[in-house]
Design brief:
This protein is of the alpha/beta class. It has one domain (3-169): 3-Layer(aba) Sandwich (Rossmann fold), CATH 3.40.50.300. 46% of the residues lie in helices and 15% in strands. It has helices at 14-27, 37-41, 52-71, 85-94, 108-114, 119-124, 154-169, and strands spanning 3-7, 32-36, 75-79, 99-105, 146-149. Strands 2-3-1-4-5 form a five-stranded parallel β-sheet, sandwiched between helices. Helix 1 (14-27) crosses helix 7 (154-169) and helix 3 packs parallel to helix 4 (85-94). It is globular, with a radius of gyration of 15 Å.
């Protein structure tokens, strides 16, 4: 069973690609669970804020859930910002089987233009502070298994992602 982690800035396309990838897994007869940061923050992680410690705990909990699912023969697709290398290292220390970490490399300008949740507008209006990639930290990804530019179309990004995953799973 594999664990795929899509990381990147808000608006990079993590959720969009994660949903499409999940459907592709299902279409190919795989048992898959899709874990998205926004969804988990409405439930199991609703007690956490956005401090560095809370973000670390958010990622730790998800990694533990991920590992349990994998042990039960379920593929997992995760969509989380995971802005620091220490968080990514923690993920790798917990998810020990068939982990594929993918960094969606998208410019802040493109993310701002997409702004699917209106967060960048809130940042510009001063309603959100410590926002990842602007006033909050987002460290360069040092050990991604794939760096995927999502400046291209969703179809092109998905195609490239599938080809990489097929190569890893063979």
């Amino acid at each position: 069973m594999s664990s795929i982690w899509l990381t990147g800035l808000s608006g990079a396309g993590k959720t969009t690609l994660g949903i499409l990838l999940s459907q592709w897994f299902k279409d190919n007869g795989k048992s898959v669970v899709f874990l998205d940061g926004d969804e988990l923050r409405m439930g199991i992680n609703k007690d956490l804020g956005f401090s560095e410690n809370d973000r670390l705990e958010n990622v730790r909990r998800v990694a533990e859930i991920n590992q349990l699912l994998q042990k039960n023969n379920i593929d997992v697709i995760n969509c989380f910002i995971a802005p620091t290398n220490s968080m990514r290292k923690l993920i790798r220390s917990i998810v020990t089987d068939d982990l594929i970490m993918i960094f969606l490399n998208t410019s802040i300008e493109t993310c701002r233009a997409r702004d699917p949740k209106g967060l960048y507008k809130k940042v510009a209006a001063g309603k959100i502070t410590n926002f990842t990639g602007i006033s909050g930290i987002f460290e360069p990804f040092l050990d991604a298994d794939l760096i995927l530019s999502t400046e291209q179309s969703v179809d092109s990004s998905l195609s490239e992602l599938k080809q990489f995953i097929i190569g890893r799973l063979d």
